[in-house]
Each structure stands twice: as structure tokens, then as C-alpha cells.
Amino acid sequence: MASGPLDAVVELPGSKSATNRALILAALADGPSVLRRPLRSRDTLLMARGLGALGVDVVDQGTDWVVSGRPREGAGPDEVSVDVGNAGTVARFLPAVAALGTAAVRFDGDPRVRERPIGPLLLALRRLGVDLDRADALPMTIRGHGAVSGGAVDLDASSSSQFVSGLLLAAPRFEQGLVLTHVGGRLPSAPHVAMTVAALRQVGVTVQAAADTWTVMPGTISARRHDIEPDLSTAAAYLAAPLVAGGQVTVEGWPDDSIQPGAILPDLLAAMGAEVTRTSRSVTVRSGRGLHGLDADLGDAPELTMVLTALAALADSPSRFTGVAHIRLQETDRLAALATEITALGGDVTELADGLEIRPRPLTGTRVRSYDDHRVAMAWAVLGLAVPGIEVDDIATTGKTVPDFTASWDRMLLASSRP
Questions:
Q1: Given 3-state DSSP classes, what are the helix, strand and coil percentages for the chain, each rounded to the nearest 5?
Q2: Which of 127, 198, 256, 360 is most buried by a 10 A CB count?
Q3: How many CB atoms lie within 10 A of CB 228?
Q4: Bridge pairing between strands 213-216 and 6-11
């Protein structure tokens, strides 16, 4: 629990989404690129190692990474393995890159990743001329033949927008480019696709986006410097803390204009009772006159669901979060995990087809499961600010996106304002 009202300034790690997109584009570029202040966490290190297996060097240079760029044809061994861990971006971004090479590349990872959806992406790759041994799940092997023909393809990305991004990022290197049409239900996490389109345009790629169709022209990916924004979704746990413990927390380095999904976080916290102050490079959240329930569609920012649910369990009125059916298919079934653990604490949470209803009840602390999910573990850290006895079974799983989460959390708690 917090010992008093907070008065902390937090520096966030780099965005996982931005880092892994920049790594792919740098790997396919026409020369060396620099990633400034990238996130170094399990997911991004897996991406860097995967690119290394494909013949691309990612070298530490102080706080930055230097990426060698497009490997020479035939570089590297004939057969390689890529460990994707439980990282959706690695599992879904690297296959199209591997198809551009000449090796047989086997993809596999943690047991959970074998259960996560990837079939629609693999089917689309097969229709684009990629040689792969299965098109439904991992483990699978892609046999690169030095080129991908590209062209037009339909794709159901209703279970993950990463399917779209994974194809768009490699599409400039396809011989015919790509015309990709999403044909399923609602596209989740649409801002993540917008991030991909923006990143492509920044390296000189021509991209047209209209409704659920994206057209990428074939051409060169320019080497450049990629300035990695802080991870605004990770900010959720820190900026939620004052609503529970009192006081205030400032996140430095908050971009003035960002298309990250987490950019809507301050507005959501304000709706739950926070006082929010912005500058051109920071956001400060102060406790207000209570913590209130919220009814919100989080389909464009599903990563915020976990921390907002923890807040909702402590609020003075019910909450309802919808639009996030697909988070059942992420690191764990996140809706079930939240409902199960909060109910075990004495809470009242109902699973919906696409979200949760939370009715606040007095909670009693006990050991809670993280389900090997970094966002779930962060939610329990927030809950623990108010509920004595909360113990997370594996807080180290936060290293997936925040390598020093426990240390930074402790620093925030120590920076408390005294009467």
C-alpha cells in the first residue's frame, strides 16, 4: 500500500509498439538506421534477436541501437530458428520479413503463443506467394525464395490489428507492393495501424489508407533516425496511482501530439475523477474529489483495460468497458483473468461478450495471479495501493515491456508528499 499521498515524477520507457515497428523498417532499409532511446525489454530483444537470425545486425550504441539495414542476399545460414516468446509483434511482423530472404525460418515460442491467433496472417502470406508449411498456428516454417510477389489480398484482422501491420511493414519490398483489405468485423486497436502507416510514410514509403483498405507502393525504405516515443499505455499504472493513493504523478516526455492508443489515457482518468494538467512535454494527474465509475468503449485502446478495471473495482459507482473481445486472445484471456482475480478478492465483475461490468465491493487482499501477463500484473500493482495484502505471484512478468517496473514503482511510492 501507499504510505501517503504521492508526489512523483516518472520517466517512461520507450514504446514497445514504436520500437518494434522501427526495428522492422530499419532492417529493411537501404542503409544503417539509428533508433534513439528504444525500449529494451523481453519483446523488443526478441525482435532484435529474430532480425539477427535473419542476417540483420542490431548493435548497442549507448542509449541507442544501430541497425545495419537490408542484409545481403544469401547472408546467413540456410536454416534458422526464431524464438518469438509470447510477443505478438514478433510472431506477426517477422514472417513477412523472413519471406524476403533465402533461408528456411522456423518460428516458435512460449506455449501460449501457439494458442494465439495468427492463421489469417499466414493464409494471406500464402496467397501472396509465400512458401510456408502450415497456415494456422505456430510452430511453422517459412522457406524464403528471395522475393515476395505481393499484389492484392483480403485479410480478416478482427482478432488482431497486428496482422495488418505485419504485412504493411514489409510491403514496400514486395515486387508489386500490396493492396490489403480487411474483411472481418471491427478492426481492433485501429490507432496501432495508424502508427504503422505513419512510420512507413516517415521512411519515404507511399501509403494510401481508405476505410479498411491500405495500398502500399513498392519502393525503397529510407534509412533514418527513429526517435522512439515513451510508451503511453505503460503510463496507465503510474498515472492511475494518484486516484488511489492521493497526491500527484507527472510523466515527463509525454508527446504533444501522438497517435499511440494510450494518448487518450489522461481524458479517461479525468472522466474517472482525476485532475489533469498538460504541458507540451508532460502530463500531471492529481487526485480529485473521488474515484468514479466509467462507461467506455476501449476498442481503440485495449491495453488500458487492465489498469482501468483495477480503478473501477475501487470506484464509488459501477463501470462498464466494451469493445475489447479480442483481448481474450492476447498474453492470456485478459477478461477472464480480471474477472476471476477481482472476484476472488471479494469484488463483483461480470464478463460480457466484449468486455466487463464492474460493481465496486469491499476487497480483501490475498495472492493474485499475473497469468504471465505484464498488463495484468501492473493492474494488481495499482489495486495494491488501496488493498492491504495484495501479493502478485509473478511481478517480474512486467519485464515484457518495463524492465525495471518494480524499482520504478518503489521510487514513485517513496516520493510521497508529507503533511
A1: 35, 20, 40
A2: 360
A3: 22
A4: unpaired
Is 11 an annotated catalytic residue? no
What does the alpha-carbon distance between residue 89 and residue 199 come to, in Å, rounded to a whole number?
15
Q: What is the pLDDT of residue 4?
A: 82
Cell 494538467 -> residue: 277
**Sign of the torsion angle spanned by Cα atoms 321, 326, 329, 330:** negative
For residue 348, the cross-strand partners are 359
Contact 291, 267 (CB under 8 A): no
Phi, psi of 311, deg, nearest 5 = -60, -45
User: Does residue 200 contact residue 28 with C-beta atoms inside 8 Å?
Assistant: no
Q: What is the pLDDT of residue 417?
A: 52
Q: Which residues contact 41 (CB under 8 A, 6 or more apart)?
A: 13, 16, 399, 400, 401, 402, 403
Instruction: Indicate the SS3 state at residue 203.
Output: coil
Closest CA to 192 of 232, 135, 235, 149: 232
Residue 175 CA to residue 130 CA, distance in Å, equals 12
Give, in order, the Cα–Cα distances in Å from 403 to each of 156, 249, 407, 408. Answer: 33, 20, 9, 10
Closest CA to 276 of 266, 263, 268: 266
* Residues whose CB is less than 8 angstroms from the CB of residue 263 and which lie 6 or more positions away in sequence, other chains included: 191, 232, 255
Q: How many other CB atoms sit within 10 Å of the CB of residue 6?
A: 26
Q: Which of 11, 73, 303, 351 is an active site residue?
A: 303
Residue ranges for the chain with pLDDT beneath 70: 1, 72-76, 417-419
Query: Which residues have CB under 8 Å from 244's CB, separation 6+?
Result: 2, 291, 311, 314, 382, 383, 385, 386
Helix, strand or coil, per DSSP, at residue 214: strand
Q: Is the pTM of this model over 0.90?
A: yes
Taking the C-alpha atoms of residue 298 and residue 320, their distance in angstroms, rounded to an integer, is 10
Residue ranges with strand state E in 166-286: 178-182, 207-210, 213-216, 225-227, 247-252, 275-278, 282-286
User: What pLDDT does residue 295 have?
Assistant: 98
Question: 296-350, pLDDT tens digit by residue?
Answer: 999 999 999 999 999 999 999 999 999 999 999 999 999 999 999 999 999 999 9
pLDDT tens across 243-294, in order? 999 999 999 999 988 999 999 999 999 999 999 999 989 999 999 989 999 9
